[in-house]
């Protein structure tokens, strides 16, 4: 029904001036309302009454309007004030009416040029509500899922989780994708994810979307493939769209999410009006109470761009800190009419610049109920700040609530049982489905997928055995099978060698480290880097004791001037067997590496040497030798030889030669490995 009147010169009255008791009623013109109206004030100051008066004025004037109420009280109250000639124009959207759900599918019949805008708007809604768990990867996957679903007719928000978990359904959706970038993502990128990574990536999406859709009260609305209400038609035909999103009946997150999706759909429908001349576009007024619940990033674009599409906003909330910085800047940068009820000190300080010099923060903080300070848009110019008093309720009850609800159900609502049956059939779990068979099928699919994971063949570097792994490794590096891996780790730690041959290193000489031989107080080793010949190193030389220069001419020994116990003393002293340290008293390192260090502190006292010799003068000189200073430094070899017991400590030690030795120079921390 069209109402013929001078819409351009309409004035919506909402307050009267109170300066010097000059009570003059005033309002805002149609063209000035296209610059939007912003209302802020503490709870209980009269904001809702102001909005009720304004929307009832629009209803009686025949304007198209929408009221989004997150509490539900005002939405139900308005039903009793609808005049009889406008009952058929009302679309009452109440998700709490579970027996008569009205279908709302935001993915239905989206213009190809608007798909990315719809997806971006939905991302803004999801990001605001799930801010605590939102991530770039979550946004990336969810955005591509929404874009993919919009290319297939009949899809709904239920398809998001199914697309992420059902391979067959995902293949069906991918086959209909028209955007090559979106198709490339699902085929190449998402299809190339490892199973573990894919599960981790989609888990947050399945969690949050699943929570929203798990409630039957919401699922029966968004699961309908065909929307019962056409938002574009509501705007063009000047209908009354009342949205009841009571948090007490829906839950806070569901209320905010559903309200955000409806506002996004209103914005997209308004922008679709680009296909008609501007003078033919009908003004549509959108009232949003407690709009911080739905103040997503798209609000900024509505405030800056919606005017040309004749979507006019009237927003109300309690304090400025409820808004993000981006939305706040968009509000104060674009609204034409600014109305302030009593506010708190932080808001008063913030709004001081808007109302100075006429009003100071103390004035804004101490306003009585129903009293306002405002800056009014008059013929495109913002007025100076002035004070006013809002009007009392202006409409009279008509008692039309039951008639409005009945006609709205008849025209737009569906039957709950039929909708749930369709959802079950779509999900593949209708009445005729055998649950046991389906569960077995899922179990078999999981086993098959687990086998497919191990798809890379490798040959063990050690034993040559062929085995499989679920990941791709660098084949230029050693790769070991399950049996060889612990053996190799033990070998690297110096543990016991494995029994398997080194198949992977055929043709190479295997070097086996063995402990040095202990024979009559001499460590017999082979394979020093300095020579290829066999070298015998006495225990005395390893201890690094200095030799007396006077004994050099008297003592002769094996190689390098060191007597060998196996050969006996040549022209020198003989070593009695009792002086030979027993093998049990010596602890030889498992891995035969002797670390020779320069200038190591000798923390222990000098070993007392008892030498029974046929040369009494030598014995006398040794007994009269002064005790070495503990601060003396000497090159030594660390040999772990703890004292086993008190008896072992009294046994004679190996003979200490007094002949000065010139051992082979060794760099600090040089590692020498003795081979058999």
Describe the structure.
- With 676 residues, the protein is an alpha/beta fold.
- Among the domains are: 11-104 and 227-402, Rossmann fold, CATH 3.40.50.300; 114-218, no CATH class; 434-490, no CATH class.
- The chain has an 11-stranded mixed sheet with strand order 2-1-13-10-9-3-8-7-4-6-5, with helices on both faces.
- Strand 14 (456-459) and strand 15 (466-469) form a beta hairpin.
- The protein is elongated, with a radius of gyration of 46 Å.
Strand line-up across the major sheet: 2-1-13-10-9-3-8-7-4-6-5
Name the CATH class of the domain at 11-104 and 227-402: Alpha Beta
Low-confidence stretches: 496-514, 517-550, 552-581, 587-614, 626-657, 672-676
Radius of gyration, rounded? 46 Å
Q: How much is the average pLDDT?
A: 76
Give the strand tally: 21
Shape, principal axes of CA atoms? elongated
How would you describe the oligomerization state of the chains in this entry? single chain
Write the layout of secondary structure elements.
Elements: E1 11-17, E2 25-29, H1 30-33, E3 37-40, H2 47-61, E4 64-69, H3 73-79, E5 90-93, H4 115-129, H5 136-149, H6 159-165, H7 167-174, H8 180-189, H9 195-214, H10 216-222, H11 231-236, E6 240-244, H12 247-250, H13 252-271, E7 284-289, H14 298-305, E8 311-317, H15 325-334, E9 337-340, H16 345-355, H17 361-365, E10 371-375, E11 377-378, E12 381-382, E13 386-390, H18 401-412, H19 416-427, H20 435-453, E14 456-459, E15 466-469, H21 484-493, E16 517-519, E17 522-525, E18 535-538, H22 539-543, E19 593-601, H23 616-623, E20 633-637, H24 646-649, E21 670-673
Parallel strand pairs: 3-8, 3-9, 4-6, 4-7, 5-6, 7-8
Antiparallel strand pairs: 1-2, 1-13, 9-10, 10-13, 11-12, 14-15, 16-17, 17-18, 19-20, 19-21
Helix pairs in contact: 3-18, 4-5, 4-13, 5-6, 5-9, 6-7, 14-15
């Amino acid at each position: 029904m069209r109402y013929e009147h001078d819409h351009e010169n309409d004035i919506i009255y909402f307050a009267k001036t109170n300066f010097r008791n000059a009570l003059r009623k005033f309002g805002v013109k149609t063209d000035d309302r296209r610059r939007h109206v912003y209302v802020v004030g503490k709870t209980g100051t009269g904001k809702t009454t102001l909005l009720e008066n304004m929307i009832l004025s629009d209803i009686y004037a025949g304007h198209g309007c929408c009221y989004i109420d997150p509490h539900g009280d005002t939405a139900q109250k308005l039903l009793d004030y609808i005049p009889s000639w406008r009952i058929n124009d009302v679309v009452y959207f109440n998700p709490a009416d579970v027996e008569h759900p009205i279908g709302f599918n935001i993915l239905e019949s989206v213009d190809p040029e608007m798909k990315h805008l719809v997806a971006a708007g939905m991302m803004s809604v999801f990001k605001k509500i799930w801010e605590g768990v939102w991530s770039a990867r979550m946004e990336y996957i969810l955005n591509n899922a929404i874009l993919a679903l919009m290319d297939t007719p009949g899809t709904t928000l239920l398809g998001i989780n199914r697309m992420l978990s059902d391979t067959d359904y995902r293949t069906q959706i991918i086959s209909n994708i028209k955007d090559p970038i979106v198709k490339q993502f699902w085929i190449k990128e998402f299809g190339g994810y490892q199973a573990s990574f894919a599960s981790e990536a989609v888990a947050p999406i399945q969690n949050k979307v699943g929570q929203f859709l798990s409630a039957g009260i919401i699922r029966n609305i968004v699961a309908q493939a065909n929307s019962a209400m056409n938002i574009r038609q509501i705007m063009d035909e000047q209908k009354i769209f009342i949205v009841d999103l009571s948090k007490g009946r829906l839950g806070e997150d569901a209320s905010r999410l559903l309200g955000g999706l409806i506002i996004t759909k209103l914005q997209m429908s308004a922008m679709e009006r680009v296909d008609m001349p501007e003078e033919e576009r009908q003004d549509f007024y959108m009232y949003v109470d407690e709009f911080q619940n739905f103040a997503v990033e798209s609000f900024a674009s509505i405030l800056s761009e919606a005017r040309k599409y004749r979507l006019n906003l009237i927003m109300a909330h309690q304090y400025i800190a409820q808004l993000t910085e981006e939305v706040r800047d968009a509000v104060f940068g674009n609204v034409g009419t600014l109305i302030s009820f009593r506010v708190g000190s932080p808001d008063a300080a913030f709004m001081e610049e808007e109302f100075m010099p006429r009003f100071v923060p103390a004035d804004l903080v101490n306003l009585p109920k129903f009293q306002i300070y405002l800056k009014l848009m008059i013929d495109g110019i913002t007025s100076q700040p002035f004070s006013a008093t809002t009007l009392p309720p202006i409409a009279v009850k008509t008692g039309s609530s039951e008639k409005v609800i009945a006609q709205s159900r008849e025209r737009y609502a569906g039957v709950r049982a039929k909708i749930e049956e369709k959802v079950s059939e779509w999900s593949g779990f209708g009445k005729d489905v055998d649950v046991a068979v389906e569960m077995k099928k899922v179990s078999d699919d999981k086993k098959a997928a687990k086998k497919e994971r191990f798809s890379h063949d490798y040959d063990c570097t050690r034993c040559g055995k062929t085995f499989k792994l679920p990941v791709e490794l660098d084949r230029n590096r050693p790769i070991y099978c399950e049996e060889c891996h612990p053996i190799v780790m033990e070998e690297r730690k110096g543990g016991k060698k494995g029994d398997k041959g080194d198949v992977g290193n055929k043709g190479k000489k295997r070097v086996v480290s063995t402990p040095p031989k202990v024979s009559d107080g001499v460590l017999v080793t082979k394979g020093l880097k300095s020579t290829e010949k066999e070298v015998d190193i006495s225990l005395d030389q390893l201890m690094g004791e200095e030799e007396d220069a006077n004994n050099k001419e008297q003592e002769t020994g094996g190689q390098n001037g060191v007597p060998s116990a196996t050969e006996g003393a040549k022209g020198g002293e003989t070593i009695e067997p009792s002086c030979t340290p027993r093998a049990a008293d010596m602890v030889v390192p498992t891995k035969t590496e002797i670390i020779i260090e320069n200038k190591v502190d000798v923390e222990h006292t000098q070993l007392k040497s008892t030498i029974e010799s046929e040369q009494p003068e030598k014995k006398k000189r040794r007994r009269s030798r002064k005790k070495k200073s503990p601060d003396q430094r000497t090159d030594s070899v660390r040999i772990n030889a703890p004292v086993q017991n008190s008896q072992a400590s009294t046994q004679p030690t190996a003979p200490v030669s007094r002949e000065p030795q010139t051992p082979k120079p060794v760099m600090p921390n040089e590692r020498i490995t003795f081979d058999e």
